[in-house]
Write a structure and sequence with these properties.
Layout lengths: L6 H5 L7 E10 L3 H13 L4 E4 L6 H9 L6 E5 L30 H4 L4 H17 L4 E6 L10 H9 L12 H6 L4 H16 L7 E4 L9 H9 L4 E7 L6 H6 L3 H10 L3 H9 L3 E2 L3 H12 L6
Parallel strand pairs: 1-2, 1-6, 1-7, 2-3, 3-4, 5-6
Helix pairs in contact: 2-3, 5-6
Length: 303
C-alpha cells in the first residue's frame, strides 16, 4: 500500500513537488559535547530542530542552552535505553522492568521492549513533564533507538503525545519500508496502518527518514549533498548526531569520529548555500506542531 502525496505539504503552503527537510539533531544532552555542538549548529543556521534525552547527565546544561535561544525548535527524545558500557543513565521513574541488574536502562532495544506499555507510558510521560517543568517549549517527540516507536507501544504513546499537542516523528511508510528498518511482517503492517490512521485523524506526518551514518567517519558534507540531491518530494526528517571532539566523547562511544563528522557536515556555509541552490525548503517541527494544534482546536484532529 502506498501513500498519496502528503496533505501537510499543502497545509503548510508548499507544493506536492517540493522537497522540505527538517535537519534534526538527536541525543542532545547525552554528554557535554552534544550540547556545545548543538549550540554551534543552531547559530550556523542549517540545523532546524533537535531532541533532548531527559534522563541524561548533561540535560540541565542542554536546557539552559536551549532556553537562551529564542527560536529553538526542540522535542523530547523519548529514552528507554542506555547503550554505552561505561556511561549510563537511569529512568526518571522507578519501574524495575525498565532497568538492568545495575539499575540503569537496558543497553539493548529488545531488552528495553520487555517493559509493559503502561510502564513505558509512565516513564515517557515523566520525561515530557520534566522537559515542560524545566521551561522547554516542546515541538514534538521522537524515539531514541526507535524503541518507543514499536507498534506494541503506539496505543499508549500516541495519545500521550497528541494530548499535549505534540506531533510524533512517525514517517508515512508502507510495510515494506518498515520491514527494511527491522520490523517483522506483522509489526510492519501495524506500523503502516498506524501511519494511515494518524493522517486520517489530522495528525501531520513526515514522509521520509534519512540519517547521516554513525559507522563511517571522514567527510560527511559531500555525503550530505548527495543524500539531499537524491531526496524525493515530501517532508524529510534528516537525522544527525553532532558532537564536538572531546575526551569525554571519546571515552563514551566508539562511534565518536562519525558524530564529529556529522557536526562538521552541517557547520560550514557552503552546505547552506547548496541547500538553497537545490531548492530545498528547511523547516523545524514547530510548523507541524502549530498545524496539529490548529486542527485540534477546530475539532479536525482527534485520537
Amino acid at each position: 500500500m502506498n501513500f498519496p502525496p502528503n496533505p501537510s505539504l499543502k497545509a503548510l503552503g508548499y507544493d506536492q513537488r517540493d522537497r522540505v527537510v527538517i535537519f534534526h539533531a538527536d541525543d542532545v544532552g547525552m554528554c557535554q559535547a552534544t550540547v556545545t555542538a548543538y549550540q554551534d549548529l543552531y547559530e550556523a543556521g542549517l540545523l532546524s530542530s533537535a531532541a533532548v534525552m531527559m534522563p541524561c547527565a548533561w540535560v540541565p546544561a542542554a536546557v539552559q542552552a536551549i532556553r537562551s535561544l529564542p527560536t529553538a525548535d526542540v522535542g523530547v527524545h523519548w529514552t528507554l535505553t542506555s547503550e554505552w558500557a561505561t556511561y549510563r543513565w537511569r529512568p526518571l521513574t522507578s519501574a524495575p522492568a525498565l532497568t538492568d541488574a545495575n539499575g540503569y536502562f537496558h543497553a539493548g532495544v529488545e531488552e528495553a521492549r520487555w517493559a509493559a506499555p503502561a510502564t513505558v507510558r509512565e516513564e515517557l510521560a515523566a520525561q515530557l513533564d520534566r522537559a515542560s517543568a524545566w521551561g522547554l517549549d516542546l515541538t514534538h517527540v521522537d524515539a531514541h533507538m526507535g524503541v518507543a516507536a514499536h507498534p506494541r507501544y503506539l496505543p499508549e504513546l500516541l495519545p500521550l503525545a497528541l494530548s499535549r499537542g505534540l506531533p510524533p516523528f512517525f514517517p508515512r511508510q508502507n510495510a515494506a519500508a518498515w520491514q527494511a528498518e527491522g520490523l517483522d511482517g506483522e509489526d510492519a503492517r501495524q506500523a503502516e496502518q498506524a501511519a494511515f490512521a494518524l493522517e486520517e485523524r489530522g495528525v501531520p506526518l513526515v514522509d521520509h527518514l534519512r540519517m547521516l551514518p554513525l559507522d563511517t567517519a571522514g567527510e560527511h558534507a559531500a555525503l550530505t549533498r548527495q543524500m539531499l540531491r537524491d531526496l524525493p518530494p515530501g517532508i524529510t526528517h534528516f537525522i544527525v548526531h553532532p558532537a564536538h571532539d572531546t575526551p569525554e566523547l571519546r571515552a563514551i562511544c566508539g562511534d565518536w569520529p562519525a558524530r564529529v563528522a556529522n557536526y562538521h557536515a552541517l557547520l560550514g556555509p557552503a552546505l547552506r548555500r547548496d541547500v538553497q541552490n537545490m531548492g530545498i525548503q528547511v523547516i523545524g517541527y514547530r510548523p507541524l506542531r502549530n498545524l496539529l494544534r490548529q486542527r485540534q482546536a477546530a475539532g479536525q484532529a482527534t485520537w
